[in-house]
């Protein structure tokens, strides 16, 4: 993978192809499991026998056994808090975050005063993580020594975002805003791994995959979307192929001793670059302040 990503040789795992896996005792929650990459994960985990809960706005897999739906609009931190309270009641082994949009060409703001990409793609995850991980730490899981949380973003590129303007209130650039959500998700893996040592924290970089993620930027059904998603579809793996590649790594016992860790689109371990401890602290501190300003307490 390009973007200056470096492999991390210290973490190797033994591949067991997905068709050999039986995940009957596994309980998985996928925040953003209604579309794209999250939906591919949901369908694949379900097909291997796992019990799955998906969170999103529009559920399309009501015909599947053992897939429950929690409807939520994660533009809103109040909704993220409600979701975290519902999920905290569940004995989960695995939590996957795939909620996301791309920042719009002109800045959008939610009813709680947050830039919309930041709210959906990053801050809602922070709120849910703070709501569920303290309870999750107390779970003894069926399959793993400790529960696992996978945060899908774009880690490993050294992208640090704009820590002094997390709400994009200064000069607006959609790309800069989106890259700040990317940095936030990488910081969230690093910070949460320190905060919750009884949970395995992992960041996933899927590379480019044809999905709806760029619709808010390119325009759904626009010619730009048609051309760009067409090229991505031709050159890159699709969401189903990506999920098939990742699933054996996500349940591998070789991950037990490693947290935090990051993986590229071939499920190879990669390095987190440039995120010093003080920078992560500053990023997360500013994020907490922003969430509290929106009126939502962080547990
Ligand atoms: N695809 C790529 O090329 C690519 C590249 C790098 C990183 N990623 C990352 O991969 C993750 C998954 O993206 P994807 O490509 O699968 O995107 P996607 O197909 O657009 O799926 C995004 C998911 O987020 C949910 N979502 C969006 N807005 C929401 C809201 N306001 N409230 C609740 N749920 C909401 C959608 O559910 P509903 O439709 O039900 O609202 C959907 O389940 C994201 O974190 C993205 O940044 C993707």
UniProtKB/TrEMBL annotation:
One of its GO terms (molecular function) is oxidoreductase activity. It holds the Pfam family adh_short. Keywords: Oxidoreductase. Coiled coil: none annotated. It comes from the Eukaryota. This is LANO_0E00144g1_1. It comes from Lachancea nothofagi CBS 11611. The lineage of its organism: Eukaryota, Fungi, Dikarya, Ascomycota, Saccharomycotina.
């Amino acid at each position: 993978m390009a973007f200056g990503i470096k492999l991390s040789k210290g973490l190797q795992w033994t591949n067991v192809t997905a068709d050999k896996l039986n995940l009957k005792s596994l309980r998985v929650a996928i925040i953003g499991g209604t579309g794209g990459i999250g939906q591919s994960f949901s369908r694949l985990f379900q097909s291997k026998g796992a019990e799955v809960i998906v969170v999103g706005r529009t559920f399309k897999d009501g015909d599947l056994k053992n897939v429950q739906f929690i409807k939520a609009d994660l533009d809103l931190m109040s909704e993220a808090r409600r979701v975290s309270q519902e999920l905290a009641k569940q004995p989960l082994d695995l939590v996957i975050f795939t909620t996301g949009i791309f920042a719009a060409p002109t800045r959008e703001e939610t009813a709680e005063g947050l830039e919309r990409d930041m709210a959906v793609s990053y801050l809602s995850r922070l709120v849910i993580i703070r709501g569920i991980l303290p309870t999750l730490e107390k779970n003894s899981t069926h399959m793993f020594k400790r529960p696992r949380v996978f945060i899908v973003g774009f880690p490993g590129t050294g992208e640090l975002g704009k820590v002094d303007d997390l709400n994009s209130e200064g000069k607006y650039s959609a790309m800069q805003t989106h890259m700040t959500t990317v940095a936030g998700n990488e910081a969230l893996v690093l910070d949460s791994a320190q905060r919750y040592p009884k949970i395995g924290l992992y960041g996933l970089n899927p590379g480019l995959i044809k999905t709806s993620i760029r619709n808010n930027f390119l325009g759904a059904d626009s010619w730009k979307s048609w051309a760009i998603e067409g090229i991505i579809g031709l050159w890159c793996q699709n969401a189903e192929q990506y999920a098939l590649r990742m699933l054996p790594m996500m349940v591998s016992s070789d991950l037990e001793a490693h947290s935090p860790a990051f993986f590229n689109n071939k499920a190879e371990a990669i390095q987190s670059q440039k995120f010093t401890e003080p920078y992560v602290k500053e990023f997360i501190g500013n994020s907490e302040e922003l969430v509290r300003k929106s009126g939502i307490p962080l547990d």
